[in-house]
Amino acid sequence: MTAVADPVQSSRAWRLRLAATPYVLLLPALLALAAVSLYPIFYGVRASFHKYRYGLDMGSAGKQNYTDIYHDPVFWQAMKTTAKFVVIAVPVETLLGLLLALLVARELRFASWIRVALILPMTIAPVVVGVIWRLIYASDIGIVNPLFSHLGLGTPDVLAHYHGAFFGLVVLDTWEWTPLLFLIILAGLHSIPQDPLEAAQVDGATRLQTFFHHTLPLLMPVLLVAVTLRTIDAVGTFDQIFVLTGGGPGTSTQLISIYSYNTAFQFTQYGQAMAMLVTLLAFLLLLMIAAVQFIRRNSRAAA
Amino acid sequence: MSPARRRVTATLVYSALAVALVLTLFPFWWMIDTSLKQPVDIFSGVAFWPQHLTFHNYYRLFHEYNFGAYLTNSIVVVTASVLVSLVLGTLAAYALARFRMRLGIDRVALYGVLLVRMLPGILLVVPLYIVLAKWGLLNTRLGLILIYAGLNTSFVIWMMQSFLEEIPKDIEEAAMVDGDSRLSALWRVVIPLAAPGLIATAIFAVIATYNDFIIALTLTSTPSAETVPVGVSTLIGKIQIEWGPMAAAGVVGAVPIILFALIVQRHFVRGLTLGAVK
Q: Which of A5, A166, B102, B193 is an S-S bond match for A10, by CB 3.0 to 4.6 Å?
């Protein structure tokens, strides 16, 4: 070998390095990501087929954990509560978010300040949201009881009653997450071309007609993304409940996240907890894939 | 529309907005209000302004409830994990924004990253707990840093990929013709152009990490590693709740994030919809 590199060789080496570049750039990130997501999930699925006693792995349990949770009424209760929570909260948030967005999507004084104020609830830690509503619902120092008794409606003691606590949680969630739907829908509204809308109104269409025939269909792609992302998030609601009720009273606010958490960390039944979560993941995966599809379609349409 | 009707509409719109604003902001005020009251006043009926203004609840938070330690832990964990994820994620995002790879690896990676972002924390904590216990990383800041760094990477990749795609290729190619390597072109030319996106991404990652509860809750157990949200939750005692310090803790937990949120509000939609809406 001479000291001077062969130009042909070095250019090939250079091209090879260039071809490798994207993989080299991508690999560290993907490894880090896989280590904290794919690996835990893989490990979790494996744990769901193992028996744990006092937190120690006692070896394979076959399908036992899945059979156990299948026959566990509390598990099904938690799944039902989760579904009920999502099915009530998400549509309410979507509707309110849409109304708010329609109100704000016009020439307004202080528009940007109004918008910032309206989205504050979703920026703070969910734990703090739990604290805020605990301070509001508390039967001794709260504001709901005095308000209701002032109106002659008695004292509801929101967090002490089965239905009250569930309803209280839905109100909390609506307060926290309507801003998300509001903000996304507002952005969607701003991206809709105004000309056809004005043309329709010139042609004598009422506001309601233009909304349903023009605005809503154009808003649909954005709405779909927002609603699916929100649904996925709502299924995993944990922090606020942990602070607000801990799942009670009874099992009224015990979503599957809370029940599986307690199964794992209070009763150290990791295997059963993971069997519940793997079951949940099976449902969630459908939603997640749908969300990816909606996002892909939108980004392609925008390109 | 006639002027009279327009005035009626405007009145209705502003009244509706006023109601929405009160419903949105009052709960914050109630927490702040409670945090500034003396214990006796907290129990003496509804008062929308502290009867005897006091900062004693905040004093107690730092002297009796370890909030100095929680804040330190949060700052260390958030800073380190966000920095690591920004470096890893931006490099990966650049690769995804600029190269088409074999077998569509780039697309698979991009949408795989998106899927990871949507996973609820509860699905990850049981296995992460078992694994960290094996490595002796439970209840350490390092354990939290590693996990948050990894999880944030998904968000950084996704956000930065969309910001970087908006920067024309020609600019860095010109720099490379002038003798820059790809990495130095990325560092000298592309990153400065992508700075607003990078800052928005960083702040989003900071908010998400600072606010996270379930991972910190399960993986830490003493004030040597517990973060602010976990600290807030420790104030909910089993027997009785100290309302004043709890309200003060909520305020301390919320304030840094509200400040950050105000800075990035322009980028909010993009961050929250994972770039699906710009």
A: A5
